[in-house]
Amino acid sequence: MNRIETEHRDLFAIADLAKEFGITARAIRFYESKGLITPERVGATRVFRRRDRARLMLILRGKRLGFSLKDIAEYLSLYDAQSQHAQVNLLLAKVETRLARLERQQADLATTIAELREIRRLATDRLEPR
Amino acid sequence: MNRIETEHRDLFAIADLAKEFGITARAIRFYESKGLITPERVGATRVFRRRDRARLMLILRGKRLGFSLKDIAEYLSLYDAQSQHAQVNLLLAKVETRLARLERQQADLATTIAELREIRRLATDRLEPR
DNA sequence: TACCAAGTTGACGTATAGGTAAACTTGACG
DNA sequence: CGTCAAGTTTACCTATACGTCAACTTGGTA
Q: What residues contact residue B107 under an 8 Å CB cut-off, 6+ apart?
């Protein structure tokens, strides 16, 4: 299966997604048990569509950013609420909260990256004096 | 105790730092048990210097960035190794690894913040049409 | 038809990061 | 001297995020 085929496909098995994202099938089932994704079933077998795949990407990105699955569930609901209707004010409040945290994180990141680059510079200088 | 006093002081009790950083004394003791900080003792009582306070700041920043305490321990060792001497190449490898992760995180962050701002815009529009 | 690969559920185990409670010590103060 | 605040250790408890295993079903293939 090549990239083009993957992009065109509409149905995925649990192993397809596990392989594509480098996680285990067990993890995907776990996310479903927490309500983060809701694949269809054909008999007992899970069948994933592109929507589930997209959600999975959002989940993994959230994890890379250090969010708990609970946080991520709420985050995903922001996307859902949007297309539905929801209590817009509540939605906005949550978005603001999350944005505030992320912006602080962004500042932390910049500082840390700068410090690490400085450490790298000092270490490199020691390797190549002059 | 005002800011100036705090800045000038050289010795801190565990409660001082806990209060200043909004964490519990238990958490600080836990970090010590993991070797992240090594306060002096006067009898059984821990006495913290500015160095410990600075490390605590690095620890908390690391946590905000989603690192495990183990990661953070290694991260702190980068600072130590620098002033000492260490195996510079190994140090550099670790710095590169960490930088790579942080830079990916930075990209994730930018994407996520943009998406949340878009969601906020859509929600705001719904509140104030026209 | 016999069997393998892939899927499923459920139970149990593990690592991380502390919180909570008990029981004790110590220094300062009225 | 009594006691109160603040500190200490030890032990046990909790939540999160899966991994591992057992036991079973099912669809396709030799």
A: none
Nearest nucleotide by C1' from A47 CA?
C7
Q: Tell me the pLDDT of chain B averaged across its residues.
A: 86
Q: Residue B7 — very low, low, confident or very high, per pLDDT cuts 50/70/90? A: low
Record the tokens describing residue B62, joined without a space. 């690391």
**First CA to last CA across chain A, in angstroms?**
52
Strands (E), B1-130: 40-42, 45-47
Tens-place pLDDT, residues B52-103: 999 999 999 999 999 999 999 998 988 887 666 556 777 778 888 888 888 9
Q: What is the DSSP letter of A42?
A: E
Distance from CA of A44 to the nearest CA of B (A): 34
Q: What is the mean pLDDT of residues A67-81?
A: 89
Answer left, alpha or beta for residue B48, where phi above 0 means left and psi between -120 and 50 means alpha. beta
If one compares B86 and A65, the residue with the highest pLDDT of the two is A65
Q: Which nucleotides along chain D are within 7 A of a protein C-beta? A: 6-9, 16-21, 26-27
3-state secondary structure of A47: strand
Structural domains of chain B, with CATH: 1-66 (1.10.1660.10)
Q: Mark the nucleotides of strand C covered by protein, meaning any atom under 7 Å from a CB.
A: 6-9, 16-21, 26-27
- What DSSP element (H or E) covers B68? none
Distance B43 CA to C24 C1' (A): 15
- Confirm if A108 and B66 have CB atoms less than 8 A apart: no
Instruction: Quote the minimal CA–CA distance from B123 to chain A in Å.
Output: 6
Between positions 22 and 81 of B, the ones with CB within 8 A of A are 61-62, 64-66, 78-79
